[in-house]
Amino acid sequence: MAARDKFRQMIGRKAASDNLLAGDKRYIKIRTLGKGTYGIVLLAVDNKTRQKVAIKFWPRGSEAINVDVQRELHHHSGFNHPNVIKFHEVFLTPTHVALAMELAPNGDLFKKVSNAKGLPESEARGIFQQLILAVDYCHRMGVANRDIKLENVLLGGDKKKPIIKLTDFGFSKSVQDSIPTTICGTLGYMAPEVLLGQEYDGMKADVWSCGVMLYVMLYGQYPNEDPRATVLQDIQIPDRPATLPDVKHLIRCMLERDSQRRIKMEDICQQPWVAQGLPEDFLTQNEQFVSASAQHMPGQTKEEINAILYEAGLQKPEERKAREAALKAVQNLQHSTTSGMATDGSSGLGSGQGSTASTFNGHQLQDSHYGGMMEY
Questions:
Q1: Residue 10: inside a domain
Q2: Given 68, 136, 147, 168, the catalytic residue
Q3: Both 99 and 137 in a single domain?
Q4: Measuring CA to CA, how many Å separate 67 from each of 181, 197, 198?
Q5: Cα diameter, the chain
Q6: pTM here?
Q7: Residue 36 in contact with residue 64, Cβ under 8 Å?
């Protein structure tokens, strides 16, 4: 083969590896939106609808395609709300599992807040009202997000009057699952009970995270230089910029270290600062959205999503149980043959998603998003 032909072949292979949609008949890549530890996100055009979409990818194989991905897709596919990124479909490429979803064209909330070094109180209120509507809807659907942060709130609509879109349900958990104990999420937004590794209520932990978001929107910084300090001491509210007593009271109620005393989601909208400008039936809208979601026929059923994931490498429940039993048997054997030596009891089954998704970089507002994976 001539040197020129070899070079062309090499370039062709590289282009295909850079474009995870190469050869796909429906979606055409426009550009890469972001890369992260758990995947990559592309901006693409849907040939069927001619709309731009965001497509998130996970590499095939049991290491990446695990129960956390399955849970994320199950939860997201069931949501149908104007303040939640719309789920379109899951499909396979030769090398990846792909999730096509609504595109939020105006970036994420972190960029907006950091560029402005905090938002005017009226603007923060409008965004916060929408955030509470989105999170309350998820809770009414029986799902705690467990990773609410600025970077996971995307901006649609008009730039001057944005419509927020909650995204990324990789740490979400249903109330029908076991009681959460996993330390997960993003360090600066974690509630004290999560940091302590105790059993906790994911929905109450979400309220804390929303409180951190409101604090950051207003003051342009995180509540504590070391977020682990929240376990031991109450947060302090800056004197500048000046904010109304009502909003300070709300922040303190949301950032209450004792989760039993922390304000409930349904009570947040009764607070004077939040209720300003809202219709009286603000939260009853979510009852309608939940009812509509129950009747909504998603493009793919959970069974269809499971079939795609199993083909991509997800272990079936019986396979996981057999593997866990085999590992436990090996551990028991090692324990019985080891004299006077301590073992840590680790099963080695961790997916890597039980730790924080990103690091916290101190009191000043710095990007806590791990790799900008959903950075639009």
A1: no
A2: 147
A3: no
A4: 16, 21, 22
A5: 76
A6: 0.82
A7: no
Reported as a single tens digit per residue, the pLDDT across 30-49 is 999 988 766 799 999 999 99
Active site residue 147: yes
Alpha helices for 36-108 (secondary structure H): 67-78
One domain, residues 83 and 115: no
Q: Does residue 155 sit in the same domain as residue 260?
A: yes
What sign does the CA torsion over 42, 47, 53, 56 have?
negative
Type and span of the H or E element at 275:
helix 272-275
Backbone angles phi, psi at 346, to 5 degrees: -75, 135
- On whether 111 is known to bind a ligand per the annotation, the reply is no
CA distance 223 to 218: 11
Domains of the chain: total: 2
Residues 139 and 260 in one domain: yes
The pair of structure tokens assigned to 155 is 């901006």
User: Encoding tokens for residue 29?
Assistant: 């890549």
What CA–CA distance (Å, rounded) separates 242 from 272?
A: 17
pLDDT of the residue at 37: 65
Contacts of 96 (CB under 8 A, 6+ apart): 20, 57, 58, 59, 60, 312
**127 in helix, strand or coil?**
helix
